[in-house]
Amino acid sequence: MVRRFPASAVAVALVATATACSHPPSAAPPPMPDMAPMSTAAPASPAPAPVVGTAVSIDNFAFTPATLTVHRGDTVTWTNHDEEPHTVTAGDGSFRSPGMDANATFSFTFTNPGSYDYICSIHPVMRGTVVVTP
Ligand SMILES: [Cu+2]
Known about the structure:
single chain; four-stranded mixed β-sheet; 28% strand; electron transport
């Protein structure tokens, strides 16, 4: 009888300790999700990057980029990625490609600053512009 009492006391103490440990103080409240509205955060999607280079892709009956800015003296190269033939025909006649079959290319060197509108003479709804800076 004498030995069992301390054993029980130890057991109770262990249980009490375990109980205490199973209830740690909530020192870290969960962050409030409504404190950081994600809708106003800066969009992670890529910004419309300025068009660089001197290449225009003809794809799906469209010139891409529709407006290309180059420097005086640059040579612009169009590449037809469609199966359909296309042309690159300047509105002012300053340049004019032959019919371009699939994967054909056409290049033109712009020696004068200005804005050059062009179309595909086969599909006049296809329009593009080359802006030549001094
Ligand atoms: Cu065309």
